[in-house]
Design goal:
Distance between the termini of chain B: 27 Å
Order of helices and strands of chain A: EHEHEEHEEEHE
CATH class of one domain in chain A: Alpha Beta
Helix content of chain A: 25-40%
CATH superfamily of the largest domain in chain B: Aspartate/ornithine carbamoyltransferase
Number of domains of chain B: 2
Strand order of the largest sheet of chain B: 7-6-5-8-9
Helix content of chain B: 25-40%
CATH topology of the largest domain in chain B: Rossmann fold
Structural class of chain A: alpha/beta
Radius of gyration of chain A: 16 Å
Largest sheet of chain A: 5 strands, parallel
Distance between the termini of chain A: 9 Å
Strand content of chain B: 5-15%
Number of helices of chain A: 4
Largest interface: A-B, 33 and 33 residues
Number of strands of chain A: 8
Number of helices of chain B: 13
Oligomer: heterodimer
Strand order of the largest sheet of chain A: 3-2-4-5-6
Order of helices and strands of chain B: HHEHEHEHEHEHEEHEHHHEHH
Chain lengths: 182, 330
Amino acid sequence: MFPVAEVVLLNRNDIRRALTRIAHEVAERNQGTADLVLVGMRTRGVPLARRLARILGEIEGRPVPVGELDVTLYRDDLPMRGLRPAIQQTDIPVDITGKVVVLVDDVLYTGRTVRAALDALMDFGRPRRVQLAVLIDRGHRELPIRADYVGKNVPTSRREEVQVRLEEVDGTDEVLLIKPEE
Amino acid sequence: MELKTLSPRDAGSLVPGAPARRRHILDLDDFTAEEIDYVLYTAARMKEILGRPIPRVAALRGRTVVNCFYEESTRTRVSFELAAKALGADVVNMSAAGSSVAKGESLIDTVLTLQALGADFVVIRHPQSGAPYLVARHTRASVINAGDGWHAHPTQALLDLFTIKEHFGRIAGLKVVIVGDILHSRVARSNVWGLTKLGAEVVLCGPPTLLPRTMVSAELWPPVTVEYDLDRALMGAHVVMPLRLQRERQQAGLLPSLREYIRLYQVNPKRLERARPEAVIMHPGPMNEGVEISSEVAHGPRSLVERQVANGVAVRMALLYLLSGAVVEG
């Protein structure tokens, strides 16, 4: 399958504005950032969580802790056969019991990654509330999961691919929609 | 189906080496250095899981691990059991005593039976060298060698490598001295493979009856140094690994007396002065305190023995996870 069309969904400024808006929404909904913990989901949720934390720190004038979560071992969609995916580091730096945890990911699609992340979180403690922030919601949920904060809703076909590129991981900031050849 | 964690643009740059397609863990002789690094990398992630309030994930949910032990073992069997359970697998323990093995069933028949009962992994310890290889040829399950005769104990060697790397931050360039009954030691053999592949300098030290020169022929074995004098062997050592000395070796005529062995080869504080000031002590267990190792050293500040036991669970988790997608040919 060769891509015939790449559409830029968000450019660098769009991403910055979306994150700034989400940060304000997070602060507004939770009346500040006390008790707040941001947890980025590997891979690209982690730099997004760090950026949100930085903006929230500027808005509220106090640092917000950031954790990193790899959910590979909690997935329900690992194929029975084939090479196992590499496991990346998980680091939840604070006790999340009683806290408000905002899970951060780049793309919300089937919801299975979020389901796995919820399972993983519960093994670390009992948060008072868990919210979900994503840069892109592309639809096609397979589980009853929705995001509390969305950068951009993008109707997609299952054959298309949403590719989020971030400076920290990919050297550039943009979100592409890649349409396969008909 | 979107599986972001499988995307090559994520995985490639993050790990030290690409994982090989491997179905069994029989010994380390056919591992590349990159593959060993990858196992150690994965084990470090597993160790983090073991430190969580609830150390249990779902990666092996629905899989069955059979511990098939034809020889006594506590720590290895328990370690595999904890590793499998931490990954969410079901574990069945089978020991030769009290099973149909005692009624004369052959090893192959036993393994075929376990396969028919749904074993995905067979962890086998057997007094005969090579038994896990025979099993691997007759089953669709993944076979992990938990010690066969005098031949190999790859999971012990990997946990030793992990512990050394965790402590020193590297393995290449370190001097590791393995002391004692090398002749009968599967731990020593697997460690020689693993340590030399990762660039450590390995010195084997013991009485000539337990370390015949013919054993370390350059064609069959990676380059190691043989040294019969412990004081000389320990000069500049980073890691000292005394092996368990079984008292039966004296009855077999391999040692003049236990007292002489202790005098010449026991690792004690006086001996250790020859090693580097930052040297550490490791032991595959179970220890014969007062024989190959003195109690002060076994439980002293330089001892990594308890760390080895804890790390064993993480390393075995990594192996079970990495094998769990193995493809069965045919």
